Amino acid sequence: MDAQLKKGLLDACVLAVLKKGESYGYKIISDLKDIIEISESTLYPILKRLEAGGFLTTRTHPEFVRLRKYYAITRSGLHRLVDYREDWFEMKSIYEKIFDGGI
After folding, report:
1. Partners of 34 in the beta sheet?
2. Which long-range contacts (CB under 8 A, 24 or more apart) does 25-28 make?
3. Predicted pLDDT of residue 63
4. CA 25 vs CA 58, 61, 66, 82, 91: distances in Å
5. Which residues, at least 6 apart from 76, have a Cβ–Cβ distance to it below 8 Å?
6. Domain ranges, residue 85
7. pTM value?
8. Which ranges of the chain have pLDDT less than 70?
């Protein structure tokens, strides 16, 4: 899959998982495993970028002997998820025109 397309898709997947409720990195990866493969080295830059964009907030909570970082979607993140959905419908329409004989 094209890297730029996948980048937006992964952002949308992470936001969709967090729409269901606050979560942490390993759980997000686990929740996505049946949909799309994502590694920790891919996930954490996505989370950082989404947080920097104001789409996520974070908090830390002690878990056993370390702090676990939890992520939650913001109102801006919810709006961005709607934008991704609209982008999908537009892209789907373009692909249908291309591959169903529209060109």
Report:
1. none
2. 25/69, 25/71, 28/71
3. 80
4. 11, 13, 14, 23, 29
5. 53, 54, 55
6. 3-99
7. 0.86
8. 102-103
The residue type found at 60 is: T
Structure tokens at 97: 């025109």
Single-letter residue type at 27: K
Output the pLDDT for position 102.
66
Q: How far is CA 71 from CA 24, 25, 33, 87, 89, in A?
A: 6, 8, 18, 24, 27
Residues 6+ apart with CB under 8 A from 44: 25
Number of domains in the chain: 1
Amino acid at position 7, single letter: K
Q: Tell me, what CATH number does 7's domain have?
A: 1.10.10.10
